[in-house]
Amino acid sequence: MAKVALITGGMGGIGTSICKALADAGYTVVTTYSKPGKEVEWLASGKEAGYSFHAYQCDVTDFDECVALAGRITADVGPVDVLVNNAGITRDASFKKLDKVNWDAVIKTNLDSVFNVTKQFVDGMTERGWGRVINISSINGQKGQFGQTNYSAAKAGMHGFTMALAQEVARKGVTVNTISPGYIATDMVMAVPEDVRNKIIAGIPVNRLGKPEEIAALVAYMASDLAGFMTGANVAINGGQHTC
Ligand code: NDP
């Protein structure tokens, strides 16, 4: 039977490519969305392209919704073997202007969600002796970014989580890794004003934004059997931007 992969926020720019790459690699693909309505068109366009994805509504900031999600996926599709914690938001403001609402929203969506969702599935992975947890972080969790104390803190926190959990589950056949993408051509980045975006591109040695498929290919590798020796890693994929 095909292994099951769950991608949170899989209807976004990077998430859609991850769903396709894992389906192409033979996984049964399940995703979540928080805003109802968008799933109808997304599922239909996936079907047109030959994919049959499963989709569930779940706000990943809400622990109880994640408990319910796990019950539904396990009953409908089967136990989850690969979890990609991909859901994320930005709410940028200089620290002087950053308020508690936007601090909390970003920490809850990017970091608390990793606890909320991983908690539902990792015990099953260790019991079955195989699993993959892949956390989509960001270059800005590695180097910081003006206007993103909230996002940089959450994304750096994801990797702390990765390193610790990787040690706890390594002997049970489960790997836990972080991917830290640089700037990728998705709505999140295309929403940045053009002049700012051009400055961003000028600072990328390969002189272009990354493509979602380039992140998805790395996810597919990390999800594979061949990646069993990679755990606790934080893999940068950013067009050559320096990170320390
Ligand atoms: P998108 O905005 O396209 O996708 C984000 C996804 O997260 C959406 O599908 C959204 O679903 C989901 N999401 C947001 N809040 C919640 C919530 N509370 N519960 C459930 N799902 C939620 O972003 P990208 O595809 O660009 O980004 C994907 C990941 O990659 C993010 O974690 C981002 O931080 C990271 N990243 C992106 C980079 C880029 O350049 N684009 C660079 C580095 C990292 P819905 O709309 O239904 O809420």
TrEMBL record:
PROSITE patterns: ADH_SHORT. One of its GO terms (biological process) is poly-hydroxybutyrate biosynthetic process. GO terms for cellular component: cytoplasm. The keyword Glycoprotein does not apply. Keywords: Oxidoreductase. The keyword Protease does not apply. Pfam families: adh_short. GO terms for molecular function: acetoacetyl-CoA reductase activity. Residues 3-182 form the Ketoreductase domain. It comes from the Bacteria. SMART domains: PKS_KR. PANTHER family: 3-OXOACYL-(ACYL-CARRIER-PROTEIN) REDUCTASE (PTHR42879), 3-OXOACYL-[ACYL-CARRIER-PROTEIN] REDUCTASE FABG (PTHR42879:SF2). Belongs to the short-chain dehydrogenases/reductases (SDR) family. This is 3-oxoacyl-[acyl-carrier-protein] reductase.
